[in-house]
Amino acid sequence: MPFVLHEYALSGNCYKIRLTAAHVGLPLERRQYDILKGETRTAEFLSEVNANGRIPVLQLGDDFLPESNAAAFYVADGSDLIPADRFARADLLHWLFWEQYNHEPNIATVRFWRTLVGEANLTDLQRALLPGKVAAGEAALALMDAHLGRSDFFVLDRITLADIILYAYTHVAEEGGFDLQPYPNVRAWLSRVAADPAHIPITA
Amino acid sequence: MPFVLHEYALSGNCYKIRLTAAHVGLPLERRQYDILKGETRTAEFLSEVNANGRIPVLQLGDDFLPESNAAAFYVADGSDLIPADRFARADLLHWLFWEQYNHEPNIATVRFWRTLVGEANLTDLQRALLPGKVAAGEAALALMDAHLGRSDFFVLDRITLADIILYAYTHVAEEGGFDLQPYPNVRAWLSRVAADPAHIPITA
């Protein structure tokens, strides 16, 4: 029974799951939805795939798993990408929750607004939020850079799911207008993650 | 070596960890910070406790674990609160990530603004965000109510960490002005969670 990824290919949240699957060698069947046309808000999608109206969703037979970081955790579970040590496993989850609260709502949202929606098409409220999201995205990059000044990867001295999750939107942050030049440790870490033999690009 | 919870007692995010600890019988030493006075943004807090300037943080000796849901996962890990089944474990994480993305930024933030900051003291931007956060909070409650119409608890047919995490801010949603009357399944579930012999209130 193939695993099905319900996704929008340009979304970093969807890429997280494909990149994790590449690391563990899991094939995925992919179904595309155009989020700009509201294809994840149809009655059929809401009742059959995700009541929350969002992608990605990982389908395992009759079971559906929303939330990118939970789906990626499922794919990685049992592999070296999830540390066996109890504290390291929780520390990995700390970075995944931090990503969804402090990184994605800023860096991914600014990228989405600037590249897919277009600044001219933003609502007044989105326009008012933009400077705060840019500042919070820069603060997230600075926090990552400081951490990566002390270790080569986020949780262990090798790649784990935390690096894959944080790579997804960090490596396209410049598409949203974030300059990575002030963050040399982040840039070196991006290169380390991309040099892994199992790595695939977001366009794969 | 005692576990130390760096916290602000009224915060639902901090209560999550105390409630999880009560369920597994783990004693916690507690240190209070007044977030309204910026006590989690001091140079000492940023360098020694959490570079992200937020509570709760769970301290285990020299190790610090930020992010409420990651700290609660650490406390629950190895107990019945985390399902042994791989899919159920990922489904639990899906609810924890959903809580941090769709529930907490709306229901907890509106409660914080209305009860601790005060509507009169909100910035213009916060005031502009308020109606959207109220609507998103109501949508989160409606999604929970629909799910709880199909099962007594969120992931298994008994309490897990997902129920503890979602209980924390849902049970005080009315303090933020959210009316729970339209959500009978949520109200019945709140009573089931609170009836557990291991339960403690947020004021404990």
Automatic annotation (TrEMBL), chains A, B:
> Which keywords appear in this protein's UniProt record, sorted alphabetically?
Transferase
Annotated GO molecular function terms are: transferase activity
Keyword Transferase attached: yes
Domain annotation GST N-terminal: ranges:
1-83
| Organism superkingdom | Bacteria
Instruction: One Pfam family, please name it.
Output: GST_C
Q: Where is the GST C-terminal domain?
A: 85-204
> Does the keyword field hold rRNA-binding?
no
What the entry lists under Gene3D superfamilies is as follows:
1.20.1050.10, Glutaredoxin
Instruction: Name the family.
Output: Belongs to the GST superfamily.
Protein name according to UniProt: Glutathione S-transferase
